Amino acid sequence: MGIQGDTVKFNIGGRIFQTTATTLANAGRDSFFGALFDDNWDLRQQQHQELFIDRNPDCFAVLLDLLRTGDLCIPPNVPERLLYKEAMFYGLINHVRAAKLGPFDGNRLKLSKSVTGRAPGDGTAIRAGPDGGCCVAHGSMVHVFDWMLEEHPPLNLDYQRVNDIGWVNAENVLISACERLGRGDGGMGLFSSYTGDLRYKFNVVHDNQIKSYTAGALSFSPDCKIFASCKGRSNEYGIGVWDQVTGKQIDFFYESPGWSLGEADKLQWLNGTNCLLVATLFPRKDNCYISLLDFRQKTMVWSWSDIGAPLAVGEKRVRDAIAMEECNSVCVVNEYEDLGFIDLRITGGSVRWSSRSRLMKGKMPDEPCYPKLALHNGQLFSSMNDCISVFCGPDWVLTSRLRRSYGGSICDFSIGGDRLFALHSEDNVFDIWETPPTPVV
User: Which Pfam families match (predicted)?
Assistant: First the structure.
């Protein structure tokens, strides 16, 4: 790399800044400053040559100190949104994120901000984006927010109810929606997260004919496959598979008699076994059905259901499920936030319920939001009413709770981009929880 003593002068909006080649190299090859170096990281421009950039000097001073120290100190006279936009211009937005957000840790999360939605009706789902933004579904509308929590043009499905949403990448959002009888629409569509434009509509083909269908739960695999639960008008019930790149349907796992796949509440791709977890849960169905599908052999390799369970365990109806491959088990939760575990090595085994996690005593509220589960970085998260519980360790012991003072029950939450987003049932409020950065010594 260039000699550390090499200096570079910048004229930023009329203010002169001077720094070293070593400091600029901290910005990385893909940044604005990376273009100042050749392939050997030697400066292209002559030493003491001044480079003029017509940008905000106050923001540049903050970003230059970030490259020098790794610490982000924003003075009161610099608006954060303006700083983020300047960071995007210089290609330093990832440096800002890393300095602003510490490594995600459920036990250190702090409430950063709350955002009130504009759409009428209760929220359907919230999904964290890969870059720290999120999207929120309300009825037939999906509102998209970037990392700065600025809202992009909404996605309007023309009165088709949204069932699930998923981020293909930072630029594209996948939406599953209900079919409207007589219209031949519904199904799945790929939308631009920036403009809201429909880019592609995914078809279901049955007997060489394109069918209208209702798409439900979504999931993705690392090899660019999209999975969705599908419910058609005849026997097109099951799990459809599409190529993420071409948008073409490549497989369909049909629902067998006596089981439920097409109305699944949750899909989860398991990288270790290359199988898909499919969970259809109460109250969508009178009984709960959880299975693992192997699309390579088109077989159901594991299954569990509460069909035939004694009425005495009615209070322990499964409300959500998540596979834990490292533990060879599926974690489930009931309406009282009891965690239960089902052994993946035994088909049809019983649920081992644990009451040590119970936080709620007595009756459910009049308008409950059923608990949801998430697994992230070895920590288990479970929502219940107006709080989210965090469980850690081999015995999944309760270690902390996230709660705020208003907004009502939590109807959904999602983790991604080093943030946790929690959607409340009242006023469509969603919270942003972040891990504070580790102090720079």
Answer: Beta_prop_At2g24240 (PF25279), BTB_2 (PF02214)
